[in-house]
Design a protein that fits this description.
Blueprint lengths: L22 H9 L6 H11 L2 H11 L3 E5 L5 E6 L2 H12 L5 H4 L5 H13 L6 H14 L3 H11 L19 E4 L15 E4 L9 E12 L5 E8 L2 E8 L10 E6 L10 E14 L5 H37 L1 E2 L2 E2 L4 H30 L4 H33 L10 H7 L2 H4 L4 H14 L1 H12 L6 H15 L8 H20 L2 H12 L16 H8 L4
Parallel strand pairs: 3-6
Antiparallel strand pairs: 1-2, 3-5, 4-5, 5-9, 6-7, 7-9, 8-9, 10-11
Helix pairs in contact: 1-10, 2-6, 3-4, 6-9, 6-10, 7-8, 7-9, 9-10, 9-11, 10-11, 10-17, 10-18, 10-19, 11-12, 11-14, 11-15, 11-17, 14-15, 14-17, 15-17, 16-17, 17-18
């Protein structure tokens, strides 16, 4: 006998055009001059709500496994992935998520790529780690032209080849990174890994033997890695491939894979170098300066990826509320739920506008010194704030589902586990704040560029103008500034988001942001927007129509 029928359950949120359903994204792509790539971006968006969703589930259910030796006892140091991982990688590489600005460096290329990263990360974010590092390795390698000539064509190829064979036998290659060690973490100057010249030559481009360890080596199945190690002249940057030039395996030994909270589809590892062959990149003793180009570009993707996870959570929560009824009416019609969802939507839209603006600054940086300075300081600000806001957004979106959001069949638990990652990777919250403070002290042109950006909205709202005046006072009084670093960076981030919304935002989203974030008419939890906010308009803009 039948015990019940299934009703009052939302349909699956899948198979829709996630670009077209995201008005903040579409508007930003056009505003920042990337509409030439709209068709390409849309293809990624459709993929991300279709097959890639299944691949993401499978890649996280079946985690990578380490094989240190083959059946005969030979050291191989290989990681095996579920086929779904390779499908995700092939799709992202094939669409140019790892290299679009280097493949097609026309205006708006960074914006177009960021939009695709944002869409694909909503399906599965773990595989974006090697995608991001491959993208970010290119500007760092350009510090050593002969190495760039050898590797950049491979790193920008649209062919994904997962085989662990010498890169010279493949058209495409991927790059990883190995910087931190057990005793130092973010303090890379505490590293103990050493580099010894091979032969008489030393310095940029020369060959070295690397001996030491790395506590976190991201994506250890990549073909090449940027590594920090000490020489007699200080911490230097090296290019370390999986295979030596003679075709033999390099002395790159994977000790174990990390058993992580989230990002479970991706392999992160501890490695040791037993005289591994490498070549120096950039000036000897200036390794941090060399690798900072890579770090800066990965931080851009941290902001973008966090905005993506927010977007997927908001889409899931608003979709659920639009189809689920309780106490006599749909959740989306109930004022308290409207307040929560609208608050989340405001946070997500402000994050989207910020990462698109940052990407445009990277587009403009080669020819515009002010935009280059702006990108340097604003990326650190954005990474701190957007990544820091992501976990509470996901937690609240999960709660909107009730118990059904707490089970693995929904995507919410995976999003929640993933949500703290970008706040930790490439510099935790305190590191980002210290980076902003250092930039303010050492690069005053960055502060000028930031103030010029904020001033574009001056005079459009009296509350925002008052907020900028208080911010100016904060910037002019740097007494005990390190202990106040977080509140200062938070205010800078809100000012940036407010400036963007005042110039380009939807009226209802703008009004709510100013009331709640700038005027401070807001509680400490999401769902505490003041009365008079047009919640219906905000939710109509945020909810996928499927």
């Amino acid at each position: 006998m039948s015990t019940h029928e299934v009703f009052n359950q939302p349909p699956p949120l899948e198979g829709y055009d996630s670009l077209e359903q995201d008005r903040a994204l579409v508007d930003g792509i056009t505003r920042h001059g990337a509409d030439w790539a709209m068709s390409r971006i849309r293809d990624v968006g459709v993929l991300a709500t279709g097959e890639a969703m299944l691949w993401g589930t499978q890649a996280n259910r079946y985690s990578p496994e380490l094989r240190t030796h083959d059946r005969y006892g030979h050291r191989i140091d290989e990681v095996e992935f579920h086929p779904a991982w390779h499908r995700l990688m092939q799709a992202s590489v094939g669409h140019g998520l790892h290299a679009l600005p280097w493949q097609d460096p026309r205006p708006g290329a960074h914006v177009a790529r960021a939009a695709m990263i944002y869409l694909m990360s909503q399906a599965e974010q773990g595989h974006q780690c090697p995608i991001t590092m491959t993208f970010a390795a290119v500007p760092a390698l350009r510090a050593q032209p002969e190495l760039a000539d050898e590797w950049v064509p491979r790193l920008t190829s649209s062919e994904y080849d997962p085989r662990c064979i010498p890169a010279s036998q493949k058209k495409g290659a991927l790059s990883g990174m190995a910087m931190t060690e057990k005793q130092g973490g973010s303090d890379v100057r505490a590293n103990t890994t050493r580099a010894r010249p091979l032969g008489n030559a030393s310095g940029p481009g020369a060959e070295y033997a690397i001996v030491g360890h790395k506590w976190f080596c991201s994506a250890p199945m990549c073909d090449v890695f940027l590594v920090l190690a000490h020489t007699e002249r200080g911490l230097s940057c090296f290019l370390l491939p999986r295979w030596r030039p003679d075709g033999t395996r390099n002395a790159f030994h994977i000790q174990r894979l990390k058993d992580k909270l989230g990002d479970r589809s991706n392999a992160s590892s501890e490695v040791e170098f037993h005289g591994a062959w490498a070549r120096m990149v950039g000036e000897e003793g200036r390794g941090v300066k060399t690798i900072i180009e890579m770090v800066s570009h990965t931080r851009l993707d941290c902001v973008t990826g966090s905005a993506a996870v927010m977007r997927q959570a908001v889409a899931q929560a608003t979709h659920h509320a639009a189809h689920r009824s309780a106490f006599g009416k749909r959740l989306l019609e109930q004022p308290l739920m409207q307040n929560v969802l609208a608050d989340l939507a405001i946070e997500q839209e402000a994050a989207t506008m910020l990462f698109l603006r940052l990407a445009r600054a990277y587009d403009d940086s080669p020819a515009d010194a002010e935009q280059r300075a702006f990108a340097r300081i604003a990326t650190a600000i954005g990474k701190y704030w957007v990544c820091k806001r992501t976990p509470p957004v996901i937690a609240e979106a999960l709660e909107c589902h009730g118990g059904s959001g707490f089970v693995e069949e929904s995507i919410l638990p995976r999003l929640f586990r993933q949500s703290p990652l970008n706040s930790i990777w490439e510099g935790s919250g305190n590191v980002m704040c210290l980076d902003v403070l250092r930039a303010m002290a050492r690069e005053p042109e960055g502060v000028v560029a930031l103030r010029n950006e904020l001033s574009l909205a001056r005079g459009t709202d009296r509350h925002f103008d008052a907020y900028l005046e208080r911010l100016d006072r904060d910037l002019s009084d740097l007494t005990d500034v390190e202990s106040r670093g977080r509140i200062l960076v938070e205010r800078l981030a809100l000012a940036l988001q407010g400036s963007l919304l005042l110039r380009h935002g939807h009226p209802a989203v703008l009004a709510a942001f100013i009331r709640s974030r700038i005027q401070g008419d807001h509680g400490t939890a999401f769902g505490t927007l003041p009365s008079g906010i047009d919640r219906v308009a905000i939710l109509d803009r945020a909810r996928p129509k499927v």
